[in-house]
Amino acid sequence: MATAFDIVLCLLLLAVASAAVFGRQGFVAIVFFITYGLLLALAWLRLDAVDVALAEAAIGAGLTGILLLVARAQLRALEPKHAASPSVALRLLGVVSAAAVATGLSLAILSIPPSEGLYRTVMDQLPSAGSDNPVTAVLLNFRGWDTLLETLVLLSALLGVWTLARDEDWPGRAGRAHQTLSEGVLAQFGRVLPPVALVIGVYLVWVGGHQPGGAFQGGTVLAAAWIVVVMAGLLPAPHVDDRGLRASLLAGPMLFVGLAAAGLLADSFLYYPPASAKYLILGLEAALAIAIASTLALLVFGTPEHRD
Amino acid sequence: MPVWMPYAFCAAGLIGLGLYGLITDPRLLGRILAFNVVGSGIFLLFGALARRGSVDYADPVPQAMIITGIVVAISATALALGLTVAHARAGGGESLPDDDPAEDRPRGSGE
């Protein structure tokens, strides 16, 4: 049954999302957006979706928030001319379409017939999947196609961001040089946080085999550790043509494609023999976590802005 | 009222809110933020509706699809933000020229 907590959380979510959408001050809107992501992670916990809660907190709130903050800082430095306020007609169009969509969805929620979902089907097949965590089993085995294409989408996004670099800056270090006060909060934070984040990140990847966690959540925590170290100025950002870096970006997708193709010899594309599925998934998770961590971190560092 | 129900209605409201921002916000950064609110609202609606069954556990298939969705959303967001910064660096300001045709026409910047 829904408790008062659920109702209050839903109202809070709507209020914080409104503050993020209507906030004309860019910085405040982004801070509200990060808060919104963390509250949303709480909502996922209430819906018993712990894996999604971890992904939302790490990727949806954390990394998206950093991306928005970095982009805002870059835009401010460029001092672009300000955009005109929307016209009354446009606002009216916005209100009408938003209200129509929200009302239509609410009516659909009230009229949708009950469904049992696929929980039992997944549980019946779980012993042959190679993972005791049903979500990991779906991600890497039952619906491996989705995840394979997703890793390629992530890689394409990075290629897209890199193509925006100016010719004279390529190949430089990713992003711009970060300078911080050596005794400042960020520099201190940059020394304390990474060791803890490394342990949590590796733990999340490992534990994904039988409990909530996995390559995406763990990889994101590892990416966050690297981002903090670079933003605190303790380590320079990597060169975009570094061979080790390129290898770590490609390790996950290449292993995934290779395993999927090897399945073709045994049975079909993306087939894992049940006897060795556990080890294949464990290896795949490790390679994917490295690829996801480096791709996400490089997406946050952005295009090279100077050549050294 | 079952647990999933307030979250499903909340998700409908979030999608509406984000859509309003997507339509009315002239700043590209604001639109990308609103796009993320729409996206997370759709995920929440999907996840809440997946809890309707009589089983007392969350269905793993929607969960896996939502995690995939979150990663695809951040990929799209990163690329969109990169394009926004590149657009501003090229002198385009913080909004698209279509938003304000009267101001951009005299400059005659061809596509």
Short description:
The complex is a heterodimer of chains A (308) and B (111). Chain A has helices at residues 4-22, 26-46, 50-78, 88-111, 119-125, 134-142, 144-162, 185-207, 215-231, 243-266, 277-301. Chain A is mostly helical.
Helix content of chain B: over 70%
Could you say which structural class the secondary elements and strand pairing of chain B correspond to?
mainly alpha
CATH architecture of chain B: Orthogonal Bundle
Q: What fold name goes in the CATH topology slot of chain B?
A: Helix Hairpins
- Spans of chain A with pLDDT under 50 lasting ≥5 residues? none
Radius of gyration of chain B: 19 Å
Shape of chain B: elongated
Order of H and E elements of chain B: HHHH
The biggest beta sheet of chain B is recorded as: none
Coarse structural class of chain A: mainly alpha
What is the end-to-end distance of chain B?
Answer: 55 Å
Count the domains of chain B: 1
Model description:
The complex is a heterodimer of chains A (308) and B (111). With 308 residues, chain A is mainly alpha-helical. Chain A has helices at 4-22, 26-46, 50-78, 88-111, 119-125, 134-142, 144-162, 185-207, 215-231, 243-266, 277-301. Chain A has a domain at 119-308. Chain A is 70% helix and 0% strand. Chain A starts with a helix and ends in a 7-residue tail after the last helix. Chain B has 111 residues and is an all-alpha fold. Classes of the chains: A mainly alpha (308), B mainly alpha (111).
